[in-house]
Amino acid sequence: MAKKFYNPTRMCVSCRQRDIQNNLLRVQCIDGQIEAYSSCGRSFYLCYACLNEEKKVSKTLMRVCRSGDKDKLMNKLKEIIPDDRKS
Ligand SMILES: [Zn+2]
Questions:
Q1: What is the pTM of this model?
Q2: CA 80–ligand 1 middle distance (angstroms)
Protein backbone atom coordinates (compact mmCIF):
# COMPACT_ATOMS: atom_id res chain seq x y z
CA MET A 1 0.00 0.00 0.00
CA ALA A 2 1.37 3.38 -0.99
CA LYS A 3 2.05 5.69 1.90
CA LYS A 4 1.00 8.75 0.00
CA PHE A 5 -0.13 10.83 2.93
CA TYR A 6 2.47 9.67 5.38
CA ASN A 7 3.79 12.45 7.57
CA PRO A 8 6.82 11.56 9.65
CA THR A 9 6.34 12.41 13.31
CA ARG A 10 8.90 13.74 15.72
CA MET A 11 8.89 13.78 19.49
CA CYS A 12 8.84 16.95 21.55
CA VAL A 13 11.79 16.83 23.95
CA SER A 14 9.74 18.54 26.64
CA CYS A 15 6.39 16.72 26.80
CA ARG A 16 7.35 13.66 24.71
CA GLN A 17 4.24 13.97 22.58
CA ARG A 18 4.62 13.07 18.94
CA ASP A 19 3.51 15.37 16.19
CA ILE A 20 4.24 16.02 12.54
CA GLN A 21 7.42 17.94 11.94
CA ASN A 22 5.47 20.98 10.76
CA ASN A 23 4.00 21.45 14.24
CA LEU A 24 7.36 21.35 15.96
CA LEU A 25 10.24 23.76 16.20
CA ARG A 26 13.60 22.22 15.39
CA VAL A 27 16.44 23.60 17.45
CA GLN A 28 19.90 22.64 18.63
CA CYS A 29 22.30 23.57 21.39
CA ILE A 30 25.69 25.07 20.66
CA ASP A 31 27.98 25.70 23.62
CA GLY A 32 25.10 25.85 26.07
CA GLN A 33 23.04 28.21 23.96
CA ILE A 34 19.92 27.38 22.00
CA GLU A 35 20.09 27.95 18.24
CA ALA A 36 17.83 27.41 15.25
CA TYR A 37 18.75 24.18 13.54
CA SER A 38 21.50 24.81 11.00
CA SER A 39 21.45 21.47 9.13
CA CYS A 40 24.32 19.85 11.01
CA GLY A 41 24.81 18.64 14.52
CA ARG A 42 22.40 17.12 16.99
CA SER A 43 18.96 18.67 16.99
CA PHE A 44 15.77 18.26 18.93
CA TYR A 45 12.17 19.33 18.66
CA LEU A 46 9.81 21.40 20.76
CA CYS A 47 6.08 21.56 20.19
CA TYR A 48 4.29 24.88 20.14
CA ALA A 49 2.19 23.97 23.15
CA CYS A 50 5.38 23.68 25.21
CA LEU A 51 6.90 26.77 23.63
CA ASN A 52 3.97 28.75 25.02
CA GLU A 53 4.63 27.48 28.52
CA GLU A 54 7.63 29.48 29.53
CA LYS A 55 8.21 27.71 32.85
CA LYS A 56 8.11 24.28 31.32
CA VAL A 57 10.19 25.07 28.27
CA SER A 58 12.85 26.93 30.25
CA LYS A 59 13.38 23.85 32.41
CA THR A 60 13.70 21.68 29.33
CA LEU A 61 16.15 24.04 27.68
CA MET A 62 18.37 24.17 30.76
CA ARG A 63 18.38 20.38 30.81
CA VAL A 64 19.09 19.73 27.14
CA CYS A 65 21.60 22.58 26.79
CA ARG A 66 23.19 21.88 30.18
CA SER A 67 23.01 25.54 31.01
CA GLY A 68 21.71 27.37 34.06
CA ASP A 69 21.30 30.64 32.22
CA LYS A 70 17.56 30.60 31.80
CA ASP A 71 17.19 34.21 30.62
CA LYS A 72 19.78 33.79 27.91
CA LEU A 73 18.09 30.63 26.66
CA MET A 74 14.60 32.09 26.75
CA ASN A 75 15.59 35.32 25.01
CA LYS A 76 17.20 33.36 22.22
CA LEU A 77 14.27 30.98 21.97
CA LYS A 78 11.92 33.91 21.43
CA GLU A 79 14.08 35.00 18.50
CA ILE A 80 13.91 31.53 16.99
CA ILE A 81 10.12 31.06 17.20
CA PRO A 82 8.55 32.29 13.96
CA ASP A 83 6.36 35.36 14.48
CA ASP A 84 3.26 33.69 13.11
CA ARG A 85 3.52 30.91 15.70
CA LYS A 86 3.80 33.15 18.73
CA SER A 87 0.76 33.35 20.94
ZN1 LIG B 1 5.82 19.54 23.93
A1: 0.86
A2: 16
Environment class of 16 (CB within 10 Å of its CB; exposed 0-12, middle 13-18, buried 19+) = exposed
CA of 4 to the centre of ligand 1 (A): 27
Query: Mind listing the domains of the chain with CATH numbers?
Result: 9-85 (3.30.1230)
> pLDDT tens digits, residue range 10-58?
999 999 999 999 999 999 999 999 999 998 888 999 999 999 999 999 9
Burial zone of 61 (CB within 10 Å; 0-12 exposed, 13-18 middle, 19+ buried): buried
d(CA 23, CA 46): 9
